Amino acid sequence: MSFRLKSLFFTPFALLLLSLPAFSQVTAVEGVVKDETGKPVQGAQVIFDRTDIKGHQEVKTDKKGHYIHAGLQMGTYTISVKIDGQVKDTATNVRTSPGDPKEINFDLKQSAQAAATRQAALEKAAETGELSADQTRGMTKEQKDAFEKSVKSNVALKEKQKALNDSFSAGKTALDNKQWDQAIESLNKAADLDAKQGAVWSALADAYSGKAQATPAEASADYDKCFDAYKKALEINPNEAGIYNNYALALAKDKKIDDAKVNLAKAAELDPPGAGKYYYNLGAVLVNGGQNEAAVDTFKKAIDTDPNYADAHYQYGMALAAKASTDATGKIIPVPGTVEALQKYLQLKPDGPYAASAKEMIAALGSSVAVSYGTAAAPTKKKGK
Question: In the chain, what is the straight-line distance between the N-terminal and C-terminal CA atoms, in Å?
Fold first, then answer.
């Protein structure tokens, strides 16, 4: 075959080779998807979004949580995992390369922990207003803008918190010093700054209650404001027995006995071990307000709740003593239970602060008491009387 013939023979074949299209290189990515408990996730969508040029492809995991995308063109991708319609994790800037499949695993437990760590670091950075070089490098413009907004928000929050603390502290100091108007002004300012602080409303209620007692001419309006403040405190802390107790005492001072009993019963329900104390406190308020009949019932309630509440026995006995009468000869006739209550106090507290007073009252009522080693003898009537 001549050189010319050979040239004619091979030239078309060469042209055919030269005319074949140049195919792009392809590669593969595979991995495993695990949930927050470490178990493989079947049927999870693994989404490939190409970022250097537009492209979008999806595959799903098998029963072992494994996925593979073969025939993937060379490029840069964002790979996301979507479970039940929600994106759970994302790997960014994944560059494919020829050779063995690139392994990209998704462990949602580790991802959640890493996200929490990053969030904590960002929150700490927001407090100082400074980001590390690594944090800045990994942030988009939108994330940087959000960070700056968070910094400004933290500054404003700190300023508000300081103003709230200052107002509350000033109000509490004035309250302790019985400077009612100053306390009310400062505590109202604190409530304006943050209306969800139960302690502020409780203190404000105490301030209005104190002012109502100090200035009787304005008591009605001040008590109304006091009760409103307690109601707001209870909206915030509905299970706080102490607030119900203090609310009940304020109601009693305004002679709203039935309402006081309702709130005191709620305090006792929420805090059964403290019920005796709550009833005792209410009884003391009633005595001081000249409401002896109501006080008798309340002290009896304290005793029924706590039979070993010595001071309640004493106050019950003294309240009953006030109901004593005299016969035609001038002899004192105590109502049933009076002496017994005072004797019980002496039995429980033979050396208590009310011991001398209890003995004197028993003697005045025509009985005698013998106290020995913390026990009391049964009362006996004096002869000749």
Answer: 161
